[in-house]
Design brief:
Shape: globular
Radius of gyration: 23 Å
Strand content: under 5%
Strand order of the largest sheet: 1-2
Largest sheet: 2 strands, antiparallel
Order of helices and strands: HHHHHHHEEHHEEHHHH
């Protein structure tokens, strides 16, 4: 018997090999990241670090702008499906939630259902009869774009004693200055608030997961992770989660968390998985709306949602891990 003939494949054909979702390594072209993507990424990181370190109203206002722009993109996706959400009302009540998260974090959970009720009442009095899709898209916009992100403000501002020592309507004590806000030393962290250290570690984990997944998936990925986002690979996702775990374990040692490195590894695993699911959720919405990017605001990256989707579902996990789980573990270890 002779050798089995190798089937010919037209190089111009768009039909993919059914046995593989990715071309072999030899057929791949290595495209390096464009400078616009690199520069915009550096600017975004610098701005994020500035907001995180300064905290207080610097963080709240900056974060509020990001939330506002992200919600605008979300409502554009909803409108692309023929849905008419209560966009303006949702935008306003979401900002109220964020401000409340800075002034009185304990009231945000109570305000969320009230805000949702207000949105539903608003839709009742529109000239055109609202649909279930209109109501659902509006409430999802509040939950996805307002309530969940508020946990970052609760973490950074709500757990910062400098900004909780307030007088009047949420104004800082007059004696507080930028020198008191900015950490004097990153070596002796005893004076740095839990909100700042835990948020910084969480963001580093998200960045490690995103960067690791991007490069490993781009150059070594073979297996498609999900049909929702065909460019994401299992190899990239696994490496991204492992990168998040490694950063968190190292951070838990540096911050002297109780039960480190196990608490750090659990923290990194939660963030790695939640950030990936957040990315896929936003990809699902874009695919349903029939668009590639949620916007064009950030050169080389797309829209605000394209760069912040990893932060949405991680926010409450980080907050409750730090405020509930870590103290419980500390109490358990002390009483052993």
């Amino acid at each position: 018997m002779g050798e089995e003939p190798v089937p010919y494949k037209n190089p111009k054909s768009k039909i993919q090999n059914p046995k593989s979702n990715h071309p072999p390594p030899s057929a791949r072209e290595i495209h390096f990241m464009p400078w616009s993507r690199i520069l915009s990424g550096i600017v975004a990181i610098v701005l994020a670090l500035g907001m995180i370190i300064l905290g207080g109203w610097y963080f709240t206002v900056g974060f509020g702008i990001i939330v506002y722009l992200g919600q605008l993109e979300y409502f554009q996706l909803a409108r692309a499906k023929g849905i008419a959400p209560a966009a303006k009302t949702t935008l306003v009540v979401s900002q109220v939630l964020l401000i409340t998260a800075a002034l009185a974090p304990q009231l945000v959970d109570a305000m969320f259902p009230l805000a949702g009720t207000f949105i539903c009442f608003y839709l009742l009095f529109q000239p055109k009869l609202s649909t279930i899709a209109d109501i659902a898209a509006s409430i999802l916009g509040l939950f996805y774009g307002g309530y969940l992100p508020s946990y970052w403000i609760r973490l950074r501002v709500g757990l910062d004693p400098v900004y909780q020592a307030t007088t009047g309507f949420g104004q800082k004590v007059a004696s507080n200055s930028l020198t008191q806000i900015y950490p004097q030393s990153w070596i002796n962290i005893s004076h740095i608030s839990l909100g700042l250290t835990s948020l910084m570690l969480a963001f580093l984990c998200i960045w490690a997961a995103d960067i690791g997944a991007y490069f490993v998936g781009k150059f070594f990925g073979r297996t498609t992770l999900s049909h929702i986002s065909p460019k994401k690979t299992v190899e990239g996702a696994v490496f991204g989660v492992c990168g998040s775990i490694a950063v968190a374990a190292t951070g838990s040692w540096y911050l002297n968390w109780p039960g480190w490195p196990y608490t750090g590894a659990a923290f990194g695993l939660l963030i790695g998985v939640a950030s990936l699911l957040g990315d896929l959720t936003e990809s699902m919405m874009k695919r349903d709306a029939g668009v590639k990017d949620s916007g064009q605001l950030i050169p080389g990256h797309g829209g605000i949602l394209d760069r912040t989707d990893s932060y949405v579902f991680t926010a409450p996990l980080v907050y409750y891990f730090v405020t509930l789980l870590l103290p419980a573990i500390d109490f358990y270890l002390i009483n052993q």
